TrEMBL record:
This is Diaminopimelate epimerase. The active site is at C82, C223. HAMAP family: DAP_epimerase. It comes from Halocatena salina. It is an enzyme of class 5 (isomerase).
Amino acid sequence: MIHVEKYHGTGNDFIVVDAALTVPDRRAFAIKYCDRETGISQPDTETTGADGVLFLALEKQYSPPRVVMTLVQPDGSVATMCGNGVRCAAAWAAEQTGADELMIDTLAGTRRATVGDETVRVEMGQPSFDPDTVPLAEESPLIEASIDDLTVTAVNTGVPHAVAFVDDVADVDLQRIGPSVRNASVFPEGANVTIASKDAERPGHVFEQRTFERGVEDETASCGTGAVAIAAAARRLGRIDGSESVTVCPEGGTLEVTISADGTTLAGSVAQSYATELPVAEPRRIS
Ligand SMILES: N[C@H](CCC[C@H](N)C(=O)O)C(=O)O
């Protein structure tokens, strides 16, 4: 049995495992326990399963402390980056160390995080529209291109996103169009599909968000790299200007994104839902 904790960042939920514990087959572990029908669950909690497993290797000897984060997704794939995952990793490491500044090492680079009373903020780096970085199967950036019924702008915010601005996110059949855009041939490694609509009734830049995630192969309640992708695409398309704060509202909560020439930040709430023990398969012995 190993000790695990369940965290969520604005509804994007993860099983957190200390990487010092032995999980011989991370892929099999993630596929088994993330399953929304038969995966991890607790009495008195509504959700079964998770959007991924965060394996976190804490390096307390540094100042600020560092965490090597590996996100294994429900389909067994490894995501290079995850905005809400980094925020959960920072909250977990703050709990272990008492530090409020953390450096989270991801496959997309190091992200500095600050843990406050209400929110966890993370520096998200510079979004890229470069076709080699997204990556795209084309030589020029994909800006307002038609794919299926959506008008898509492609941006990498640690992982690739296809962002489409629509009149009302609630009117989009994401279960149908998500897989179609996610698997479009222009994305050789696939893409997360993020739709956004401007909330005209609220002052400032406020967008509703829905994201169909690669690796989860379903819609999630929140996606941090997706929220940053909305702000980056909005800026590129002239929907917002200059250096700005953008409020993004996925189903699971509210995310604040700042975007400027220096880079982006992502902030929002993080909560621990419960801690429990899970059985793991014995490591194979060499006889
Ligand atoms: N939910 C994550 C993104 C995971 C990205 C992953 N689905 C992929 O690109 O394979 C977030 O908060 O940023």
